[in-house]
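Dear colleague,

Following up on yesterday's call, I've attached the two folding results inline so they're easy to grep. Please treat them as preliminary; we haven't cross-checked anything against experimental data yet. The first protein's sequence and structure tokens come first.
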Amino acid sequence: MKRPETLGALRGSGYTPRPVKEEVRENLIEKIRRHDRIFPGIIGYDETVIPALINAILAKHDLLLLGLRGQAKSRIVRQLPSLLDEYIPIVRGSEINDNPFRPVSRYAVETITRDGDDTAIEWIHRDERYSEKLATPDVTIADLIGDIDPIKAVSQRLHYSHEGAIHFGLIPRANRGIFAMNELPDLQPRIQVGLFNIMEEKDIQIRGFHVRFPLDIMIVFTANPEDYTSRGNIITPLKDRIDSQIITHYPQTMDDAIAITRQEAWVQRNGKILKVPKYFEEIIEQIAFEARKSEFIDQKSGVSARLAISAMENLISTAERRAILLNDETIIPRLCDLHHVLPGMTGKLELVFEGEQEGSVKVGRALIGKAVREIFKQYFPDPLRKQPRRRSSREEEPSTEEAIYSPILKWFENGNSIEITDEMPTVEYCKQLQRVSGLLEVTSRYMEFDRRNIAEYAAAMEFVLDGLHQNSKIAKEVIDNVTSYKDMVGTIFAGQSRFGDED
């Protein structure tokens, strides 16, 4: 259907413009009636953030999304334009998207007065009605609202008080649309004061001139909690003018966390077959869960969901590098690959003083160890419990953990050890692990895997060894990408002996 191109044709079409918040509200209601997914790709907020967001939109509120980094605030904001009409008409050439039926700028008023029903109309897409700005300390009122442009005034021979001499800022240019400002606390307080009129009276005023007109706009802010940033905060009068404040949060369940990482991580590599066992996904997510309660990490800063995403990408890249070197068709990670995820972690952890004393790498390794220990106990009996937990009821459990792990522990107690590397050929990697007495039996009993895929069940066997190490049952040492497992007691006494000899 051809859209009207003049004001007269637009009137004749029966088109009725709506205020932007009414437009967003009615389009949201229609989506709810159709049972559409309102915010696709937003995981873990179905019972918390999204209902609050829907309520605020139905109330025609301006919004503040408040939460720590990596909680999908910007992603939510950038989906709001999907609630706008696909196209709306404006006076052609208008800098502030003038409504043809209710123009507010001098340009639009003079154009309609001059041309009447022949006034040219253009249609703009919903994507053109969304504007976003990152708040930084150098943002000025002129950037946001506008200022007098002396060059424009001189070139057009206009008085400085003439509206034609104005250079409009980001907010008036977003008229009849949505304006989003990220990291609001970083905006200087005096600039925040300049937003008062826009939030309350919905109009702008340029300097001291008699240039003032109303705006039809929905404003959305994002911010970290005030006590996180030392650079500034949201001044109280501005917070009072923001209608709804919605608190975001990190994934609250393992399933939600895994779903987010699966959605966001780049995992498809050069046509090779990728297989990441579920316990690896759980370990990666558990690292983030452990970090969010670690005493060495500043919890006011938060631990972004990007940590798990980057860690997973690094883990897969390590397995991919090995597949390329060994000319393997399948990419399967190993437990010894986990130390390669540290570069994706350390830059995302804000350490407190005690953490700085330990060092980011040491803290990162400790988080990985805790994650392995927690996930290990979900698949295998807890080595530290006399009555081990059972993951399934398929088989009777032995009465004590010694009966389960004793063949493995005795093998190491007899002075045996193994060494593996992340570049070791799969067959050799598997042979090394199969040397450990009872290891394959314990692994097969509690985990399901494809026995035809030696890389898969070899990785599961190493998971058992690393889980025993994290529960202080056997020793582990990593030197130059060589991981060795050996007897815990023997290692302690050997270390003491070496120390004594040095004295």
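Below is the second protein, in the same order (sequence, then structure):
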Amino acid sequence: MSRPTTLGELKASGYEPKNIREELKSNLRRRLAAKEPIFTGILGYENTVIPDFERAILSGHSINLLGLRGQAKTKMARQLTGLLDEYIPYIAGSEVNDEPMYPLSYFGKQQVKDHGDNTPIAWLHRDERYVEKLATPDVSVADLIGDVDPIKAINEKLSYNDERVIHYGIIPRANRCIFVINELPDLQPRIQVALFNILQEGDIQIRGFKMRLALDMQFVFTANPEDYTNRGSIVTPLKDRIGSQILTHYPKTLAMSKSITAQEAKHDADQEKVVVMHDLIPTLIERLVIEARTSEFVDAKSGVSARLGISALENIYSGVERRVTINGDKKSLVRISDLASIIPAITGKIEMVYEGEQEGPLNVAYQLIGKAIRAEFVQHFENPERLKTKDADGNAQENAFSRITDWFERGKTIELPSDASDKEYQRILNGVDGLALFIDENMSDVRPLDKHLWMEFVLHGLAEYSKLSKNQMDEGLEFKDLFGSMLNF
């Protein structure tokens, strides 16, 4: 079906103009009634953030999404275009997307005056009606609102009092669009003041021009609570003019965190062919993220983004692919020791407090990995700390892990090279007396393919519960008796 190309054809089609908030409301009502999803790929917000967002749209409010980093604030804002009409008409050539029935710019009004029903009409797709601006301290009023263009005035021999010398900023050019300002507190307070009229009265002022440019926009802002005290703040009058402030949050369960990471992490088909991923690894990654959010070394006000888990899982795939390529293997199961490959994802995604800086980012990263292993270990095996090591007479008493720890107490040591082939990896673990038997007795349903992963996990768990010594070396890991290593030290 062809769309009207002139103002006359548009009128004859029965077109009725409506503002962007009416568009959003009507399309949201229709999709809610039809029980169609409003947002896709936004997990964990079904009963919290999304209902608040929908209520704000139905109220016709401007919206501020307030939350820590990595909480899908921008992703939600970008999907708001799905609630717009597929196409809207505007006067062809207009910088501000003039509504053909009610033009607001000098250009639009002049076009209708000169051409009447023959005024040419163009159509704007909803994907083109999204404008995003990252707030930075150097953003000026001219960038956002506009300014007088002296070059235009000279070239066209216009007075500086003529509206045609105005160069519109990004906000007027986003007329009839969704306009998103990310990290709002980073805007200088005097720049925030320039938004007052736009939010309340819907108009702008440029360099004292006596003009009213009644803009039609849906504003969405994002902000991090940390910014209110550290880098800047949202000035009170502006905050008062924002209709709804919606609080976002991190996933509330480990399972939800895993689902988000699995959805967002990227790995190609070649990696899928060579990497055998066991569910234990994504679980450990998410436990690490949870541990980081409560760590004494990590700045809780900055938060720990979901991007940490995403980057970590991507690094795991890449680390295994590298090892497989080096050894000429066809494929390989991910190992617990492969968690060392996520160190760059950890150190690049967390903000540390003073104590963390003193500890050092590398040590903090290894400690977080250790805490994740420790927390997950007791989900599968007995807590080594609760096992009695001596009977009532003070004699040594066997426990579930005794055979393994006794082997190391006899002075035995193993080294697990990071780039060891699967055959070498299995040979080393099989050499630990009692380790394979422990898995057979405690995990009878484990697949043969996964057995050595669990064998290694037991060693890491015992080390985290101070039953063994684990040392990080350049080439990989070393496990040995804890007491013996202390004596040697």
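For the second protein, one point worth flagging: The mean pLDDT is 89.

Best wishes,
A.L.
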